[in-house]
Amino acid sequence: MKKRLISVFLALFFVFCFSLPFFADEYGDYQAADDSDLFPSSYPGRLYDGADLLTSSEESSILAKLNEVSEQYKADFAIVTVNTVGSYSANAFIEEFFDRFPYGSGDMENGGVMLLISMQDRDCCIISDGTVGDTIGDYEIDVILDYIVSDLSAGYYSSAFDKFISKSEYYVNGALNGFPFNFAPAIVISVIIGFIVSLISVSSMKRKLKTVNPVNEANNYLRDGSLILSRANDMFLYATVSRTARSSSSSSSRSRSGGGSRHVGGRKF
Asked: Which of 19, 122, 175, 206 would suit a FRET pair with 136, their CA atoms being 20 to 30 Å apart?
């Protein structure tokens, strides 16, 4: 009986030892020795699929689209996938990634927009910077995330990346060339037409009052003996108050030397 227990114990011990490499392979990709290992050692280009979410053909297709729109609008359109962001938050990681490499610099004078996918906590995050940041603000980032999050949740990463590119291009192109329907001209035209119609109506009513002559005094409207003043008071209706503003404490805000603004937003998928 004692020998049987020892044999069972040894069998379980060897099973556990041989299982360790499997668990290391399964989850090791999601652990980084330190945060410096989270980033590529050199500029990764506009598509960095560190989490290996795309096939080779999908990578080629997505990268071609990113390069095309980037050159067209002089702004970097980029996508980054990683297994983990380490001790960073997703928002902090995408800012560090964007700043660590030359995105939105050089010939890319209009800045850029980048999508981050982190698989460990299923984070998706977008950063817009520079002139593109003036176009793709917090509201537009939320719209883009709404547009792609269902595909991300379902694992259709290539489709989600295509939608990210097309929606981001829509906003940038709209800012540069005008959206399909621009409400501003329609509003201006409506105001002008309304002013003309009201002017014609008022002019028509004015012409009907030619027989009426203006009266500068109210004597004609006052019946003799109908107004008797028995008491009079002076009442001050208005006062003038002078105020001197007190000095307030100074405040500072972040500005970018290259112009434009920066927006970051994200969510789970």
From this structure: 122
